[in-house]
């Protein structure tokens, strides 16, 4: 850890967690018969905390005894608390022993409660410029939440913030003490004011502002029992406030330097975990096992505390804590009997995790058939379960018996045996590109796998833009192993055979290796999430988004097939008319779709300037070449561009969508790619629904062909100017922040600021220029690019850009800072911690380096927008379900979400979606979502 790194102290409320774990888990015993359910829960939590939550400092805080200074203030404080259960008493000492075994400081102080010590350490850390995370769900600690101090529920692994506090108390954290003083606490014997509950207390605080103001104003209240109690029990309320207020001036028995996170002593930890029989935690911590370890066959949270794996007749299991790159890749087992499969499933349950992969007869998970399933439980320990191979059975020459490898289990039996494991919450299922496998498995009749990890997304959360996230590439980069290529088992070209026709020995070697590699990647890459501070991004956004996108892909969106066919015919007729005009301008007929013939027309025959030949010798005629010529005033290149745009719309949408629709439902099902872009943005393909032009007439007609089902409407929800809002936020531009806060026209405000023109009565052209600058700046636009966009000389465009930066110097500062960050680190980060790698930032070629710099400038803004909409997408399904709405999320197109909803629920859904999307992130400027609804996408947009 750098000496200058800010402190992040994680404080575990040890005493609070002991009781919660004891009541949450069933009875468990260690090998010597000692009760250990609370100890196991605590140990499991601490192991997960060390693995998943990146902090620089860590301590567990305990209560030293039942008598504290509060008993001197009020002798009845906690006087009626019952003694702890008999089977919990021996676990208090074991929890402290667990803390010591992990090498984590355990802190307690006579005369003080653990909550006071937590308050004191939180104060010291924040005063030192650091932050503190309190691992607890205790309501008494919620008064500590403020900037720099947060809470996390250790059981649910969810943060507790302002929203959760307000839901519980009806007030913000700074008013929690006053609410608690009014309502009291029967468990701790805090008296409070009789007859006042949480709702009344929060209403009084909202009206009067504080406890003192309430008590001072009680006499003037309307006569009531509540008024009388406030007057009669005023002193009790003040006493209660003293009892519930946590003392940030409490002693800190250990200095902060003593709480720095350190690796545990492996021998000490291993011995303790073995003695307790916590075998699954032993494996998960990567601590070497020994024959002395004794498993405990009892239920527990994931990964589970279970008995040792059943012995397998195939080969000896490889320990799951073996280094991923040490165990040999194979040989692997072909599973052809129910008994063998059950042995593998038992091993997976014993390990608490397994890697899975599916083999299919196609690449579309909504249409492909399941050919086989592979399973890995440890590095080098994997199998393949064939289900639909079509190879002819071979006869053994010795006795004429059928080759056992040709025997396959019925798919229904395999899924019936596999199903409980897939649904088992105590076994983690690991996939590479989980969405594909989940769609395949659930379509085949398997239950929804949960919980799930995805190695593709684990890598993407850390290395987006640095390299590809495919399994083969990740394996070569992080395991030093080149997996068997698909072409090596199926052949290529005309000789390629379907995977279902590959003989089982070769199929097993290929498929089981995929699961083996996936497991090794998980072991290698998942611990790095914490190191790279990417864990929250992965767990809060990327992983939960898998299920959301899978549901969207299953649902699809309806199209009007007849309308698309009419569009195709209309586009064809218009293209024919355009071709006639193009031929006239060219002076002769030619194939408009031929780049070679077009180049000859433009540069050989017409002699237009600026032509460049490619390596093939033909003239280059891509869109940038044609656009340059069109900007120079040449008519023909512009007509070609318009023809190409129409041709693309016709082939990509008007024609292709009809063939891509499900014949039974007339719905198309796009596939959302989660790990392609360097900024976290989703992309879609087959069909790509994110490239339909928004502002053209033809694009609107294409969108009109996307329709709602009977009795339904489509509802669009679109973030307004989200990247500009993020720019105002991250660059801290007061004028832009003020404009957004006031709801002003941001482009008119920019024009007024830059050009000194009043907003009232502003010329539309001036506003258009400001708009071009606003959006252009986000993408690092040059004077040449802005000039071409506005149709003005580059010199004039440069004067506009200079005036913009003169008015908003903070934006230039931000751009320079981001470029420097990219050069130093190789990546930039979004406001939410996503790393966006910029590989070309060190290019020697000036043009390529400038392009990378523009990428670096835009990545935090585009990536931040992607993070925000993903946050909303993850939260929406639960919000819709809680509101009993039938709306379904169909599409995500950059900053827009598209829903299908019953017409009578349209307004309710729109309001809910707007609220969820606008509260998805807290910025220094408001997020604004615009909604619309209609029978088709164009009308909704």
Automatic annotation (TrEMBL):
Domain DNA-directed DNA polymerase family A palm residue range list: 699-905
UniProt domain 5'-3' exonuclease: residue ranges: 7-262
EC number of this enzyme: 2.7.7.7
Gene Ontology terms, MF aspect: DNA-directed DNA polymerase activity
Segments of skewed composition (Low complexity): 306-328
Gene3D superfamilies, A to Z: 3.30.70.370, 5' to 3' exonuclease, C-terminal subdomain, 5'-nuclease, Ribonuclease H-like superfamily/Ribonuclease H, Taq DNA Polymerase, Chain T, domain 4
UniProt KW keywords: DNA damage, DNA repair, DNA replication, DNA-binding, DNA-directed DNA polymerase, Exonuclease, Hydrolase, Nuclease, Nucleotidyltransferase, Transferase
Known catalytic reactions: DNA(n) + a 2'-deoxyribonucleoside 5'-triphosphate = DNA(n+1) + diphosphate
The 3'-5' exonuclease domain, residue ranges: 332-530
Family: Belongs to the DNA polymerase type-A family.
Subunit structure: Single-chain monomer with multiple functions.
The name this protein goes by in its record: DNA polymerase I
Organism: Nguyenibacter vanlangensis
Gene: polA
């Amino acid at each position: 850890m750098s000496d200058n790194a800010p402190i992040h102290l994680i404080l575990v409320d040890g005493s609070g967690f002991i009781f919660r774990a004891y009541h949450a888990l069933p009875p468990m015993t260690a090998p010597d018969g000692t009760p250990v359910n609370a100890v196991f829960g605590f140990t499991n939590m601490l192991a997960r905390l060390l693995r998943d939550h990146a902090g620089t400092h860590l301590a567990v805080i305990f209560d030293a005894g039942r008598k504290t200074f509060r008993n001197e203030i009020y002798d009845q404080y906690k006087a009626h608390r019952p003694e702890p259960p008999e089977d919990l008493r021996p676990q208090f000492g074991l929890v402290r022993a667990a803390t010591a075994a992990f090498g984590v400081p355990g802190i307690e102080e006579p005369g003080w409660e653990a909550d006071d010590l937590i308050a004191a350490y939180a104060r010291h850390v924040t005063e030192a410029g650091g932050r503190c995370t309190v691992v607890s769900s205790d309501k008494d600690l919620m008064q500590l939440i403020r900037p720099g101090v947060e809470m996390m529920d250790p059981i649910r692994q969810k943060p507790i913030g302002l929203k959760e506090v307000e839901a519980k108390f009806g007030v913000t954290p700074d008013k929690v003490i006053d609410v608690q003083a009014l309502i009291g606490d029967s468990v701790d014997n805090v008296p409070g004011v009789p007859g006042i509950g949480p709702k009344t207390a929060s209403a009084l605080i909202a009206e009067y502002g504080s406890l003192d103001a309430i008590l001072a104003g009680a006499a003037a209240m309307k006569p009531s029992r509540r008024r009388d109690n406030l007057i009669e029990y005023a002193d009790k309320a003040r006493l209660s406030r003293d009892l519930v207020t946590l003392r940030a001036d409490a002693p800190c028995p250990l200095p902060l330097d003593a709480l720095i996170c350190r690796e545990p002593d492996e021998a000490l930890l291993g011995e303790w975990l073995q003695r307790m029989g916590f075998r699954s935690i032993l494996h998960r911590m990567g601590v070497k096992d020994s024959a002395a370890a004794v498993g405990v066959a009892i239920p527990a949270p994931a990964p589970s505390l279970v008995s040792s794996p059943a012995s397998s007749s195939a080969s000896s299991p490889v320990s799951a804590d073996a280094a991923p790159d040490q165990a040999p890749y194979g040989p692997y087992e072909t599973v052809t009997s129910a008994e063998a499969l059950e042995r593998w499933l038992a091993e997976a349950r014993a390990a608490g995790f397994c890697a899975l992969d599916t083999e299919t007869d196609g690449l579309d998970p909504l249409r492909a058939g399941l050919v086989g399933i592979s399973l890995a439980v440890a590095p080098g320990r994997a199998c393949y379960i064939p289900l639909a191979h079509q190879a002819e059975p071979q006869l053994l020459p010795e006795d004429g018996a059928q080759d056992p490898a040709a025997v396959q289990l019925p798919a229904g039996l395999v899924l019936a045996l596999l199903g409980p494991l897939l649904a088992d919450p105590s076994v983690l299922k690991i996939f590479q590109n989980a969405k594909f496998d989940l769609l395949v498995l659930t379509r085949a009749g398997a239950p929804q796998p949960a919980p799930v990890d995805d190695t593709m997304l684990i890598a993407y959360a850390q290395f987006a833009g640095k390299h590809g996230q495919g399994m083969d590439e990740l394996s070569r980069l992080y395991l030093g192993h080149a997996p068997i290529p698909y072409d090596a088992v199926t052949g290529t070209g005309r000789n390629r055979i379907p995977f279902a026709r590959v003989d089982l020995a070769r199929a097993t070697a290929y498929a089981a290796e995929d699961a083996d590699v996936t497991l090794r990647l998980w072991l290698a890459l998942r611990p790095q999430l914490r190191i790279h501070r990417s864990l929250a991004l992965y767990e809060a956004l990327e992983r939960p988004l898998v299920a959301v996108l899978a549901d969207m892909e299953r649902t699809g969106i309806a199209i009007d097939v007849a309308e698309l066919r009419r569009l195709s015919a209309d586009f064809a007729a218009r293209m024919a008319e355009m071709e006639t005009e193009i031929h006239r301008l060219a002076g002769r007929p030619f194939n408009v779709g031929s780049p070679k013939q077009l180049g000859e027309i433009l540069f050989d025959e017409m002699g237009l300037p600026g032509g460049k030949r490619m390596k093939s010798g033909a003239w280059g005629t891509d869109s940038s070449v044609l656009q340059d010529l069109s900007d120079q005033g040449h008519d023909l290149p512009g007509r070609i561009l318009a023809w190409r745009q129409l041709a693309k719309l016709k082939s990509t949408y008007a024609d292709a969508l009809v063939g891509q629709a499900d014949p039974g439902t007339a719905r198309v099902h796009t596939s959302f790619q989660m790990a392609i872009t360097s900024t976290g943005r989703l992309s879609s393909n087959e069909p790509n629904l994110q490239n339909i032009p928004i502002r053209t007439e033809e694009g609107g007609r294409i969108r009109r062909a996307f329709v709602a089902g009977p009795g339904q409407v489509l509802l669009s929800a679109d973030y307004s100017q989200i990247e500009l809002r993020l720019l105002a936020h991250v660059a801290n531009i007061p004028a832009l922040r003020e404009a957004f806060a006031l709801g002003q026209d941001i482009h008119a405000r920019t024009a007024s600021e830059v050009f000194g023109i009043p907003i009232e009565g502003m010329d539309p052209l001036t506003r258009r220029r400001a708009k071009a600058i606003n959006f252009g700046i986000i993408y690092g636009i040059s004077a040449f690019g802005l000039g071409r966009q506005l149709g003005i000389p580059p010199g004039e465009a440069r004067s506009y850009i200079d005036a913009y930066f003169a008015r908003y110097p903070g934006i230039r500062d931000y751009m320079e800072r981001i470029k420097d960050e990219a050069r130093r680190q190789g990546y930039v980060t979004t406001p939410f911690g996503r790393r966006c790698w910029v590989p070309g930032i060190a290019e020697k070629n000036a043009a390529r380096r400038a392009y990378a710099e523009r990428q670096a400038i835009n990545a935090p803004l585009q990536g931040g927008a992607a993070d925000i909409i993903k946050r909303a997408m993850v939260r929406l399904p639960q919000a819709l379900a809680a509101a009993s709405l039938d709306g379904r999320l169909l599409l995500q197109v950059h900053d827009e979400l598209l829903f299908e909803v019953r017409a009578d629920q349209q307004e309710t859904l729109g309001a809910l979606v707007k609220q969820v999307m606008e509260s998805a992130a807290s910025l220094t400027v408001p997020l604004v979502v615009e909604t619309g609804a209609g029978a088709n996408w164009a009308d909704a947009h």
